[in-house]
From TrEMBL:
Organism listed in the record: Duncaniella dubosii
Region Disordered, annotated ranges: 508-537
Record has Cell membrane as a keyword: yes
GO MF, any single term: transmembrane transporter activity
Protein name in UniProt: Amino acid permease
Subcellular localization: Cell membrane
Length: 537
């Protein structure tokens, strides 16, 4: 899933633009390098079992989600990232369009998406750890045990958090090796084993069904909505477009190449699971591990299944280590512009914002308790995945809105990359993208028919209440902000509308290609501080 890489940061730096993956010099990222960057940040093994329940239809869903979500959202994020290159990322994009209230809300939703995502990957990590042992019957019982899963989730998360307090250099190294040995190599092995298994004429469990789903029965396609979260994270990766020599020419090529590889990788990996495990026996947490066991066992090498579980567990450790400090980067940008308390603006001697990490840890721990509330570990995993998808898609819709408004309020601002096709291209891309996000958002509230989620009223209620809390909380925090939160010694580049002295909704009068100089930016920051003291945005 793309969120596995979202906000991967180098927490030893307090500046948001440097705290993400370090940017290289202008013109040093080629089309091929950009494609590889996108592929490695999005392709993941963890979500394959949920789509394997659809069999051949999963290919349709992967292609559909790529067309209506990954492609349009990538193009929109690329234009925004190449236009608003100062620190802040999506917080800056949305604040330039709608003001800091909605910029903070979008940033908070991304933060919460990662927070909600954590329990799901921690559950998967607990299952992977269980499958390192022998025999498989013991593995399955242990991986399904609620107390075991909860304890391992706490150990993994808080262990990674306390390790991050020491700085993130070792965490970044673990993330790099975890991505290689815990995702890329296992993915290649899974696909190769599946091809050999299929070619050798062994028993195929994949059902013979239509390529197209039954759209008349929405509860059967709910799990497909999670693909949108698999493809998430382009709002972070798009920043690298500023390091391409010719983004207008090369980025579209890179994204099309990346999409082709991602769709093929996901589709083949999903089909391999469906080939060796009957649909009714696919467990969202354990099916990938069971598939490795069955594949290796068919070649008389059953012990290698346990080794693969260790590899995947290592990959989970890498993901958790990389992302524990990630959310603090964007939240720091909000805090430094004066919209969060001073206590959330400080870092320790290693450049890590411990207070934000404590808040993240408390929320992750609280959300992990859903493992105990719901009937099975699998159902807890599912509801957390759906809640993360809902929160993420709301943020996506806000970004689309920001893109549309900024095309109107700052039409002459220099853009390193433009969505191709002029106004027709703009409206085509946005219409397709908004349609896809809305459809997946609405589907995410329905209980899936393929797994037991307990009482449907409780299931939907958790999603509705959880969504309302996570969307409403940043608006409440903003409403009760205090002038004292603004630290005059903290530097955050003012927004264009602050420099120009207009409202975000008003059209800029700057000439084509105009960029404010340093003096104008300093005056804009002084105005922002003064307005903040008066309680204005």
């Amino acid at each position: 899933m793309g969120i596995d890489s979202t906000n991967a940061s180098s927490g030893e730096n307090t500046h948001p633009e440097r705290a993400k993956i370090k940017s290289t010099a202008k013109g040093t990222i080629t089309m091929w390098a950009m494609a590889i960057l996108i592929i490695t940040s999005i392709l993941s093994l963890r979500g394959l079992p949920s789509e394997a329940k659809f069999g051949v239809q999963s290919i349709f869903y992967y292609i559909f989600a790529a067309v209506v979500f990954l492609l349009p959202f990538s193009l929109v994020c690329a234009e925004l990232a190449s236009t608003y290159t100062k620190s802040g990322g999506l917080y800056r994009w949305v604040s330039e369009a709608f003001g800091p209230r909605w910029g903070w809300t979008a940033m908070f939703l991304e933060w919460m998406t990662i927070i909600i995502w954590f329990p799901t990957v921690l559950m998967f990590g607990a299952a992977s750890l269980a499958y390192i042992f022998w025999p498989e019957s013991f593995d399955q019982q242990l991986a399904s045990n609620k107390i075991y899963t909860l304890v391992i989730a706490f150990i993994l998360y808080w262990g990674a958090t306390f390790n991050t307090f020491r700085g993130t250099r070792s965490a970044n190294r673990l993330s790099t090796y975890g991505g290689l040995f815990g995702t890329i190599i296992p993915t290649v092995i899974l696909i190769v084993l599946g091809i050999v298994y299929f070619a050798s004429g062994k028993t195929i469990e994949l059902s013979d069904e239509s390529f197209f789903p039954d759209f008349g029965n929405l509860s059967t396609i709910v799990l497909a909505a999670s693909i949108f979260l698999f493809y998430g994270g382009m709002e972070i990766q798009a920043v690298h477009i500023n390091d391409m020599k010719n983004p207008a020419r090369d980025f579209p090529k890179a994204i099309f190449l990346a999409i082709a590889v991602i769709v093929i990788g996901y589709a083949l990996g999903t089909l391999v699971i469906g080939i060796v495990i009957p649909t009714e026996n696919i467990d969202l947490l354990q099916a990938l591990l069971v598939a490795y066991n069955k594949l290796w066992d068919s070649f008389g090498l059953s012990w290698l299944g346990n080794i693969m579980a260790a590899f995947i567990m290592f990959g989970v450790l890498g993901q958790v280590s990389a992302l524990v400090n990630g959310p603090s980067v964007g939240v720091m940008a909000v805090a430094q512009s004066g919209y969060l308390p001073r206590s959330l603006q400080s870092v320790n001697k290693n450049g890590v914002n411990q207070n934000i990490l404590y808040i993240s840890g408390a929320v992750v721990s609280l959300l992990s308790l859903v493992i105990i509330v719901l009937p099975t570990v699998e159902s807890a995993y599912q509801i957390m995945s759906q809640l993360a998808t809902i929160i993420y898609l709301v943020m996506v819709l806000i970004i689309y809105g920001a893109f549309i408004r900024l095309r109107r309020t700052e039409p002459y601002k220099k853009r390193g990359f433009r969505v191709p096709g002029g106004k027709v291209g703009e409206w085509t891309v946005c219409s397709i993208g908004i349609f896809g996000a809305l459809a997946a958002l609405l589907l995410s509230f329905l209980p899936p028919s393929q797994i037991s989620t307990g009482n449907p009223i409780v299931y939907v209620g958790i999603l509705l209440v959880g969504s309302a809390i996570f969307i409403g909380l940043p608006l409440i925090v903003y409403a009760y902000r205090k002038p004292s939160w603004r630290n005059p010694n903290a530097h955050f580049d003012p927004f264009d509308w602050q420099i120009e002295g207009r409202e975000p909704s008003q059209v800029s009068k700057w000439a084509s290609g105009y960029e404010p100089d340093e003096d104008e930016s300093e005056k804009g920051q002084a105005k922002a501080i003064a307005n903040h003291a008066k309680g204005k945005h």
